[in-house]
Q: What sequence folds into this?
């Protein structure tokens, strides 16, 4: 085997899915699994209807309603007419084309990137796409998963393939022990703050190193989830025993002998010794502290106890204008600290941090405590299964006693598309992934942080160093 | 069986939109993504910069100024970062733009634009700066975009740009990726059975 060129995990999976590589064309890449939701699919189905073609293989596509669904009274018809129409259109399209839909009220419904893994639909070695940029989440299982636009959704529905140029590869290695109060969300916010919001554009990232290896599957998903926030096409982590243990026994994962056979295959996926990446970055876990963002893109992050940079401290002069605009929007002063800053809302949810471990983390922090009077706290589970599990474990009681509201699953205040919006000018500390202007509602102001930091802020009513609590 | 407009030679004035990292939530905020068709998104392009809380046009926002118009949008670095919503490309196209020039685009946005007849042109930082200056000093100045020759020209200032050959052919002829993929049907069927 010595003459075989060593490959990265990314290259192995990619090469394994190329149906056709022709001169002058991008690769035609076969897609094993396709997830769809109500917002980015209607125009794709329209395209199929116009062309008079069917879905290529209905078994490879799974649908759910998540982006604009209400998180209260989900059993009632959706109040807002346009949202209702979009969900109804998804229902109709799934019925017409024969696609499995986990609709509101279904025990498997939830945020698309949360239900894939928990149902065992997301597996190592696969190619996975969805009309949503945070599809990178699935990469935590050691697969190639990336977000696509609606035209590409149509391509995949029609042909189970997508035309793509192979991106470059980047390895991000993190070694060492994490400090007190530091969780996976802090790792990824830290990396993005170092790389900026465009630092990994054009790359597919592999996360490696012992810090990553020691993380649970759910924590790994949080990291891969935010790969897109530094511009990366996707992010993945080679599968290991942690991965296999997570997958074992899930609803749609391979069972029995077939599972064992698959595990043997998956074990071979890891990057070969001597494989070459286009870029390699290394970080030390000891440098990472609880993080928070202060600006209007996820690259504008800092250690929670740091000062916001001053205009003069910026490396690139060309960034000064957008920097000032961003801080104006946030109502913050350059050079000031965020610690102690009062917040109005706490949002615990989204495909980044709404899995059961996240809810447990929050509950462990708030148990026996009460939220501050000035904040409203929303806890939105990532899926129906997460919600049920939380109730079984009595987390709902902990939240209730603390004055938190545990609602039903959906994207909720992550994107201000449904009823859950942060009012203009208000500050929200959020466990989601984007702090863009207006992301959580027109003129809303977002601080991104970990579930622990969000929980701490809920209790004190202000931005708080979680290390004071743990 | 193409469904798209073909991209020929384009001559137009331009609209300058400096500022880096303009994300898809600015281009088209999520609450306007509820349509189930591709049309009509132009009305809400840059909605929250264009209109105030009462829905009145914001005077100094460039799309509301009578000074600038045209089919070319000149934008700051890392344009289109954020979500995969193709609605961002639809909104820009629907508003009437056919070209966006910047020194850097987010990946998914670039793909989405190319899939919808909107040409994203990457120029050097230096050229972008000059372009901003030229357009701001002389809003009536025409810019020429020659996709065939992969060239932007304004006022003697010329810059060549990269575009991959396949996408260029698609843009010029109005082809769709799907046409090519459909032609591979047999190979894909065989692949599907073994994977
Ligand atoms: S939770 Fe937010 S980021 Fe995740 S899929 Fe929903 S809208 Fe997108």
A:
């Amino acid at each position: 085997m010595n003459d075989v060129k060593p490959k990265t995990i990314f290259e192995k999976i990619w090469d394994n899915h190329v149906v056709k590589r022709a001169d002058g064309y991008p690769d035609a890449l076969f897609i094993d699994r396709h997830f769809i939701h109500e917002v980015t699919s209607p125009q794709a189905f329209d395209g199929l209807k116009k062309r008079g073609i069917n879905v290529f293989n209905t078994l490879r596509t799974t649908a759910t309603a998540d982006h604009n669904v209400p998180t209260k009274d989900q059993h009632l018809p959706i109040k807002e007419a346009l949202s209702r129409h979009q969900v109804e259109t998804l229902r109709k399209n799934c019925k017409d084309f024969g696609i499995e839909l986990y609709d509101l009220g279904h025990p498997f419904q939830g945020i698309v990137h949360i239900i894939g893994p928990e149902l065992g639909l997301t597996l190592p070695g696969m190619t996975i796409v969805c009309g949503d940029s945070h599809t990178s989440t699935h990469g935590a299982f050691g697969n190639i998963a990336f977000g696509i636009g609606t035209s590409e959704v149509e391509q995949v529905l029609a042909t189970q393939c997508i035309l793509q140029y192979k991106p470059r590869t980047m390895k991000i290695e993190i070694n060492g022990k994490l400090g007190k109060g530091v969780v996976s969300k802090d790792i990824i916010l830290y990396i993005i703050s170092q790389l900026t919001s465009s630092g990994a554009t054009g790359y597919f990232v592999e996360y490696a190193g012992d810090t990553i290896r020691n993380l649970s599957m759910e924590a790994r998903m949080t990291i891969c989830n935010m790969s897109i926030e530094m511009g990366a096409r996707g992010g993945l982590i080679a599968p290991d025993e942690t991965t296999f243990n997570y997958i074992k026994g899930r609803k749609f994962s391979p069972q029995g002998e077939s599972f064992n056979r698959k595990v043997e295959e998956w074990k071979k996926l890891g990057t070969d010794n001597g494989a070459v990446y286009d870029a390699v970055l290394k970080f030390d876990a000891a440098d990472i502290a609880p993080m928070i963002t202060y600006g209007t893109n996820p690259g504008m992050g800092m250690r929670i106890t740091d000062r916001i940079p001053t205009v003069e401290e910026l490396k690139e002069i060309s960034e000064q204008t957008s920097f000032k605009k961003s801080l104006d929007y946030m109502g913050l002063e350059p050079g000031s600290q965020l610690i102690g800053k009062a917040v109005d809302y706490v949002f615990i949810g989204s495909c980044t941090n709404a899995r059961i471990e996240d809810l447990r983390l929050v509950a462990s922090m708030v148990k026996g405590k009460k939220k501050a009077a000035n904040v409203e706290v929303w806890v939105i589970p990532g899926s129906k299964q997460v919600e049920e599990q939380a109730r079984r474990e009595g987390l709902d009681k902990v939240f209730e006693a603390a004055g938190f509201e545990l609602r039903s699953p959906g994207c909720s205040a992550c994107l201000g598309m449904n009823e859950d919006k942060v009012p203009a000018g208000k500050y929200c500390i959020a466990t989601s992934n984007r702090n863009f202007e207006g992301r959580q509602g027109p003129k809303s102001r977002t601080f991104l942080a970990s579930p622990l930091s969000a929980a701490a802020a809920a209790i004190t009513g202000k931005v708080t160093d979680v290390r004071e609590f743990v | 069986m193409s469904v798209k407009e073909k991209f020929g030679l384009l001559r137009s004035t331009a609209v300058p939109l400096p500022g880096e990292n303009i994300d898809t939530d600015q281009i088209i905020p999520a609450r306007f993504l509820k349509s189930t068709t591709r049309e009509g998104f132009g009305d809400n392009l840059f909605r929250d910069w264009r209109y105030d809380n009462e829905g009145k046009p914001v005077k100094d926002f460039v799309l509301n100024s009578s000074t600038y118009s045209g089919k070319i949008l000149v934008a700051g670095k890392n344009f289109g970062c954020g979500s995969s919503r193709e609605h961002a490309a639809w909104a820009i196209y629907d508003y009437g733009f056919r070209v966006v020039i910047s020194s850097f685009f987010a990946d998914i946005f670039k793909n989405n634009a190319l899939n919808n007849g909107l040409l994203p042109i990457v120029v050097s930082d230096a050229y972008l700066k000059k372009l901003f200056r030229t357009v701001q000093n002389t809003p009536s100045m025409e810019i020429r975009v020659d996709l065939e020759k992969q060239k932007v020209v304004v006022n003697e200032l010329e810059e060549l740009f990269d575009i991959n050959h396949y996408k260029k052919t698609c843009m010029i002829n109005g082809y769709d990726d799907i046409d090519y993929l459909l032609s591979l049907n047999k190979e894909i069927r065989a692949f599907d059975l073994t994977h």
Remarks:
- The pocket of iron/sulfur cluster is lined by residues A 66-67, 111-113, 132, 134, 350-351, 411, 414-415, 432-433 (CB under 6 Å).
